[in-house]
Amino acid sequence: MNGLIALLGSGEYLPVMDEVDSYLLAHCGVEGRKPRVVCLPTAAGQEGDASVNRWMKMGVEHFTRFGADVQAVPVIDRVSANDLNHAMTLEEADVIYFSGGNPMYLYLTLKDSLVWRSAQKVWERGGVYAGCSAGAMILGREVPDFRMLGTRSIPVFGVIPAATIIPHFDAIPIFWKPLIGTTRKRLRNGETMLGIDENTAIVGRLDEAWTVMGQSKAHVFTKEESRSYAAGENFSLGK
Questions:
Q1: Which residue of 41, 78, 105, 119 has the fewest C-beta atoms within 10 A of its own C-beta?
Q2: 202: phi > 0 → left, psi -120 to 50 → alpha, else beta; which?
Q3: Which H or E run includes 22?
Q4: How many structural domains compose the chain?
Q5: How would you classify the pairing of strands 69-72 and 36-40?
Q6: pLDDT tens per residue, range 204-225
């Protein structure tokens, strides 16, 4: 059994995500003990100690409010991503939570690492993967190359059946709007592009329906059409 996946447009560790995180803790496969949560600031690894420490503190304080057994693990570069102690800590988790930052840095830091293998083991046995912004984007097939305005993309993990996952969708500045159109035009027949608004999450399992939670909407695009789904609504993602 594969566990739940939660993809957030923004809002990690904030009260706006309380409903989402309560749901994840209640459905992470734990009975008779506190859920174990591991928070990872990896996507902010290039931003310096102040940013990394802020994300770790926010994660611990947030999930402590829910009565979880929570730990923040400072996986911030390739060395720490291959630290055996960090990998062992992750492997014991019920919920693994990646906060936001740089999606390509996150992917390149985790790719083929001990920590990523442990994260996969948790999810494969029924634990939860939660990723906000960059943490959501790395589960698509590719990430747009923002320097090239979406005319090319960079392959990532490809766990979710969506070519591209775009967070902060309702807050994209006007000067980035052409990137969305270009990325959509590059879709192959049958492929989807997924947009997730700020303070919004989609929660589901592979090969099952996804549910929108939070304050706003999720948007599913193909080359020919698009549909938007409000909180409480379900939708499917094709290959």
A1: 78
A2: beta
A3: helix 18-26
A4: 1
A5: parallel
A6: 999 899 999 999 999 999 988 9
Q: Give the separation between CA 229 and CA 239, rounded to whole angstroms.
A: 19
Structure tokens at 175: 């000067």
Q: What are phi and psi of 141, to 5 degrees?
A: -80, -30
Question: Minimal CA–CA distance to 9: which of 162, 199, 219?
Answer: 199
Residues paired with residue 166 on neighbouring β-strands, in sequence order: 195
Tokens coding 59: 């994660």
Global pTM exceeds 0.90 = yes
- For residue 217, give Cα distances in angstroms to 37, 100, 169: 26, 19, 9
How many angstroms separate the Cα of 62 from the Cα of each of 58, 97, 105? 6, 12, 25
Token representation of residue 26 = 């209640």
CATH of the domain at 49: 3.40.50.880
Please give the structure tokens belonging to residue 233: 């609504």
For the stretch 76-132, pLDDT in tens is 999 999 999 999 999 999 999 999 999 999 999 999 999 999 999 999 999 999 999
Residue 174 pLDDT grade (very low, low, confident, very high; cuts 50, 70, 90)? confident
- Which amino acid makes up residue 131? G
**DSSP character at residue 112:** T
3 state DSSP class of 123: helix
Per DSSP (E only), the strands in the chain are 5-8, 36-40, 69-72, 95-98, 128-132, 142-144, 153-155, 164-166, 193-196, 200-204, 210-214, 217-221, 226-230, 234-235
Partner residues linked to 37 by β-bridges: 70, 95
pLDDT band at residue 147 using 50, 70 and 90 as cut-offs: low
Exposure on the CB side of residue 10, measured as CA atoms within 13 A: 11
Pair type for strands 95-98 and 36-40 = parallel
